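Consider the following assembly input.
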Amino acid sequence: MFNNDLPSVYDPKGLEEKWYQYWLDKDYFKAHIQLDKEKNYSIVIPPPNVTGSLHIGHALNNTLQDILIRWKRMEGYNTLWLPGTDHAGIATQNVVEREISKENKTRHDLGREKFLERIWQWKEKYGGNIVNQLKRLGSSCDWSRLRFTLDEGLSRAVRKVFVQLYKEGLIYRENYVINWCPRCQTALADIEVESVEEDAYLYYINYPIKDSGEYITVATVRPETMLGDTAVAVHPDDPRYKRLIGKIAILPLVGRELSIIADSYVDPEFGTGAVKITPAHDLNDYEMGKRHNLEFINLLNEDGTLNEQAGKFKGLNIEEARKEVIEALKNEGYLKKVENYHHAVGHCYRCNTVIEPYLSKQWFVKMKELAEPAIAAVEEGKIEFIPSRWTKVYFEWMKNIKDWCISRQLWWGHRIPVWYCQDCSTLNVEEYEPSSCKKCGNQNLFQDPDVLDTWFSSALWPFSTLGWPEETDDLKSFYPTSTLVTGFDIIFFWVARMVMMGLKFCQEVPFKKVYINPLIRDEKGEKMSKSKGNVIDPLEILEEYGADALRMTLSALTIQGNFICLSEERIKGFRNFTNKIWNVARFSILNLKDFDLTNIEDDYLVSNLSLVDQWILSRLYTTIEMMQNYLTEFKFGEAAKTIYEFTWNEFCDWYIEFIKPRLYQKKDQLSKKTAQYTLWLVLSNILKLLHPFMPFITEEIWHRISYQEESIMISTWPKVKDKFIQPKIEKKVFKIMDIIKTIRNIKSDMNIPFSKEIDLFISINKDDDLFTLIQENIVYIEALIKIKELKIGTSIEKPPYSVTGILEGIEIYIPLQKLIDIEEEKNRLKKRLTKIKIELETSQKKLKNKDFISRAPEEVIMKEKEKSRELGDIVARLENHLKNLQ
RNA sequence: GGGCGGAUAGCUCAGUUGGGAGAGCACUGGCUUUACAAGCCAGGGGUCACAGGUUCAAGCCCUGUUCCGCCUACCA
C-alpha cells in the first residue's frame, strides 16, 4: 500500500499537469443542478480581460476563490465556480489595431465588418491563454460553463436590459460634455478617468472691454480653450465687476464679442474673480452656457486636434495649441502674468492619455433610481462586505452617484440596439433588428454605430452567465451567488453596478458576501509596473516554484489590509514549506509500511493513545477549529499560517521526534501501532486542511497514504471533535517540552554538541503529580536528548561540577567532565534571575494594590497569585544556587 | 475641500470580550542528528507614533496632535 520511491526534494513538474488532468477526467469541477439552494455554494469569477495574461493580481484573486470553492466542496456543498472572460472593448480593440498597424493599416481601412472578423480570429487564437493559465494555477472552475461577455446568450441579456431600461426611461440619449480620450477616440465614463496631480501654470489674460480702454482679466490653466469662449462670467455681487455685467468683452486673437454675465457659481476669491466660459469644453461652463443661452463652439476633432473653429490654430494638437496661443497672446500684449499652479488632470484609465471634456451626443443610464434599492440592500444586510470598512466606500459612491455614460465610439463590443429611421427620425429600440420602422413602416433604418461600455455587460455577469433571461435550472440553483471575490479598485466599476442590475432584473442581490482582496505591491510596498521593473510574473513563479508554493505564499500574505507586499524571498520560504510537507510524508510513508490501514481497530487504538498522541490530536483539533473560524471569516492569511505553524512547529518539530523511538522499536507493538495510527491520522488531516491552499502536493501524497477516498479534493473536510481537545494534556506536554528546551539551552550555552551524550539529573520538588508525569514520560525526553546516565527523584543533591537549570518545581543538573567556569555559570543564572525578578516585581506590585484586590475579578487575582508564587519560588532557588556557587 | 485606512521587532504584519508583547522572514552562534542543509538546535532584538483621559488594569476604549497611504471633488 505504501510506496516509498520518493525523492528527497519535491518537484512539482509533471505532478501538477497529471493531477489537473485527473480532476478534469473525473469531472470533479462540474456543478450539478440542485434546486435546494442551501446545499449550493457558488462564485462567479471576475472575468479577466480576454486579451490578458495572468498577472500576480489574478493569481491572488483566483487562488482565494479556489480556496473557498475547494473548502466548500470538501464540506459537502454542490459548488459552482463559474469561469469566463470579458471582451474588454478598448483593450482588445487596441491590441488588434496595433497588429494591423504593422501592415500599415487602420481599422478604417479594413472597415467595421472585416475589422471585427480580425478581432474574432485573434480571440479564437489567443483568447484561451488566460484560461489555460488559470488551469495551471489549479483553479477548479466548472469549465463546462465557461462564458464570454460577447457570447450570444450574454449579448441577448445585454440587449434585453438595454431595451427595458430605455422603455422605462432609465436610459436616454443626450448632448453633454463627456470625457473624451483622443487616443482611444471614444467617450468614457467618469470613473474611467483617473485624476493625476500635476504642476502647471495659471495664465492671466486681459480681455478688452468693447468701446473702452479697459480690460477684464481672466485666469485659466487652459488658455487654448479661449478660442471657444462665448462669455465671461463674474459673481453677481462682486463689487469689482458689478458695473461690467452686461457689457461686451472682445476675445483676443479671435475678436468674438463675449457678453459679461453674472452667475453665482463664480468664486470671487479665486484668480481674478472673472472666468472665461467655454461651454463646449468644460462641464461647468456647459451648465452655465445652458443657463445663459450661450453659444457652444466645439473646437476639437475626434483625434484631439483643433478643427476649423480654431482659425489659424487649426490642425494643432492641444499641447501645441497651448504654446502657440500663449505666444500669440504675449506678442499682442494680452498676457498679463503667469503663476505656478498645481491641479488634478484627468487621464484615460486604459491608455493614460489626457482626457478632453468634449460636447457630444451620448447614451446615459439614469442611476439614482437604480442606486436606491442597491443602497437599501446593503443597509439591510442582504449583502455583506468583508472587510466591513468597504461598506462605507460603497455607500459614499452610491449616495453621490451620477448618470453613467455607456456609449463608446468603438467597434468591438455590444452594438447599441437602436435603429434610427432615416425617413421619420424615429428611434427603434429593439432586442432584435427590426425590418421596418415601427412608426412609418419604411425600411430605411440604420443602427447606432456605437457599442456599449464593457462594464455594462459585466454588470449583468452574475445572472447573464447563468442563462438569464431564460429561467434556467442554473439560474434557479445558483442565483444569488454565495460570494464575490474581487479587488477594491473595481467596487464602483463592477460590484456596485452588479448589485443595481441584479436587483433590477432578478429582484434579488447577485451575491450575499463580497470579499475584497488586497492588491499586491512589491517588497517595498510600491506598485508593480513594467517601467519600474519590479513586476513578479506568476507564470515564471509557477515554472520555477510550482503552483502550490505560489498559492500558499499568496494565501499566507493575505491580510485584512489594503495591500500585500510580495517578494521572491517570501515565495522561496513557502516553497521550502512544500518541501517540508513532502519530507514529512516521506517519513510517514516509510514508517507506515507495516501498518494495516484497512483493519484499524479505531476504538481500541484510541483508548490506548499515549500522552503525546493525545497531545498532537488535541493540537490538531484545535487547529481544525481555528481553520474553520478563519476561513468562515475570510481570514486567509491567518488560516494559512495556522496550518503552516501546526505542521512545521508542532507536528514535524515535536511530534515526529517524540515518536521515533516508538516507531523504531519492536518490543511494544501496541505503542508502535498507536503512534502509527496517530501519525497517519494527523498527516491525513493536515493534507486535507492544506488541500484548498496546496491542491497538487496534497493530492500526490494522498494517493500514497490513503486507501479509501479516491481523491483528496472530494474527501471530507475535517470536523472538530471536542473530546480530543484536552488542555490538561497539552499542559503536561508543554511541561515536558519545557524541560527539553531548558536542557538544550544549557547544552547550547555550554557548547556541548547535540550528539554528545550527557548525564542528566532531574530533581523534582515534592510534587507527586509532577514526579509521576516525568517518570512515566521520560522516554520522550530521551527521544530528544541523548542521555548517558539518568537520575530522577525528589530533592536530588546537586552533583559536583554541574550546571543548573531551574524551572517551576524542577531543578536540572548536568554534570560536566571538566571543572566548570564558575563566573560563566553565575552569569548564566544571573541573567535568568534578572529577567524573572522584573516579572515577579510587576506581579507583586499588582497584588499589593488594594484596588486591584477589591475590583479585579476573582479569577484574575487567583491567576496573579499563582504566578507570583511560581516566580517567587524560582527566584528563591536561583538565588540559593548563586550563593552556593561562591 | 470631503471621506476612509494606517503607525507594534531590521522588514511584512497578527494581536478576538481590556488582564503575563507574538509570528514569518532577516540577523547571530552551533550542528554531516538514518524525513528534510529548501534542514535541525539555540540566541539577540520592541518607550506598541506623540500627548492627555477613562479604568484596579490600556497595544486594545475615548479626545487631541503629528506623520504616511488611498479614494473622492466642478475653484477656472
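Chain A has a mean pLDDT of 91. Ask yourself how this observation constrains the way the partners meet.
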